[in-house]
Amino acid sequence: MMRKYLMAVIQMDTRDNKDANLKAACGFIDEAAAKGAKFVSFPEVFNVIDDGQEAPELVPEGRTISLMAEKAREHGIWIHCGSIAEVNPEGDRKFNTTAVLDPTGKMVAKYRKLHTFDITLPDGSVAEESAKIKPGDKMVTVETEMGHLGLSICYDIRFPEMYRWMALQGAQILFTPANFRMATGKDHWEAILRARAIENTCYVVAAGQYGKKRGVSDSFGDSVIIDPWGTIVARAPERAGIAIGEIDLDYLDKVRANLPSLKNRRGDVYDTIRK
Q1: Beta strand ranges found along the chain (DSSP E)
Q2: Does an H or E element contain 167, and which?
Q3: Interatomic CA distance for residues 192 and 256, integer angstroms
Q4: Which residues are annotated as catalytic?
Q5: How do the residues of the chain divide into helix, strand and coil, expressed in percent and rounded to 5?
Q6: What 8-state DSSP symbol labels residue 38?
Q7: How far is the C-alpha of 260 from the C-alpha of 200, rounded, in Å?
Q8: CA atoms of 203 and 232, how far apart (whole Å)
């Protein structure tokens, strides 16, 4: 296992031109690899944002993940593919799906977003993500030579039990690609992510969308890498770009030894809670 390496989070201003978005993504991979990154992480819906009308793709056979596999092989790096709309063979609602690729371009893990953002706004209007996105039904972690990875997408970060489950499965690095809105991001994004890192003594790798999107509010950005102590070790600038931080699994082990909250938990009492 590689105990220490550089991780890059890619902050994108994805729009409705898939060709341009994928060209930008490839450029960011080249830049990150040139700076020594061994792992690259993208934000939610990094390949296209088209007011909910984008055509879903197959995963991993579709255009976007196939291109990412080519870039992984080109540079000999790992790529966490943020998320894209995935074809649902059983219905009209697409999946919101992430994939992790190894340096050979092989997909080693796939996760479909579990939690959909369904709310009634103060003015009475309804935002119902589940009308377009079919939720997944599995939590996913995967053991790799870069560490044990836990996968999630955007709104998932508001459900701490999911991250505790991943940590108990052995996860050391939690990926949280997102397209957070400015209204909630400015108050909640960093606070929630630091909490997920601290309470689970894990690294959190949080790549976000940035900029004004058609028909929606500004995307918050603020892509970060957070260490198991809750310290932000890398933060993207206020534009599309990259931030690079170190993943140090020996440091993670040290934090867990000095603050053994995972060992001290009382699962005999509260793991019986269901509602």
Answers
A1: 4-11, 39-41, 78-80, 84-86, 95-101, 107-112, 118-120, 126-128, 140-144, 147-151, 173-175, 203-206, 210-212, 218-220, 224-226, 232-235, 241-248
A2: helix 160-168
A3: 20
A4: 44, 113, 154
A5: 30, 30, 40
A6: S
A7: 10
A8: 10
**CA-to-CA distance for 57 and 49, rounded, in angstroms?**
13
Phi, psi (degrees; rounded to nearest 5) at 145: -70, -10
Question: Which residues lie below 8 Å from residue 268, measured CB to CB, with a gap of 6+?
Answer: none
Tokens 């055509």 correspond to: 55
- Cα separation of the two ends of the chain: 39
String of DSSP letters for 207-249: -BBEEE-TTSPEEE---EEE-TTS-EEEE--SSSEEEEEEEEH
Tokens of 34: 């040139």
Q: Hey, what long-range contacts does 114-120 have (CB within 8 A, 24 or more apart)?
A: 114/139, 114/152, 114/156, 114/159, 114/162, 115/155, 115/156, 115/158, 115/159, 116/155, 117/154, 117/155
Report the chain (275 residues): mean pLDDT per 10 consecutive residues.
96 95 98 98 95 84 98 98 96 94 98 92 76 95 98 98 97 98 93 98 98 81 98 97 98 98 94 76
DSSP 44: T
pLDDT tens, 165-203? 999 999 999 999 999 988 889 999 999 999 999 999 999
Amino acid sitting at position 54: E
φ/ψ region of 98 (left if φ > 0, alpha if ψ in -120 to 50, else beta) reads: beta
Burial class (CB in 10 A: 0-12, 13-18, 19+), 25: buried
Q: For residues 82 and 96, give the distance between their C-alpha atoms in angstroms, rounded to a whole number.
A: 10
Task: Please report the pLDDT score of residue 53 as a whole number.
Answer: 63
Contact 8, 32 (CB under 8 A): yes
The domains of the chain, with CATH numbers, are 4-265 (3.60.110.10)
- Torsion sign across C-alpha atoms 44, 218, 204, 38: positive
- pLDDT value of residue 165: 97
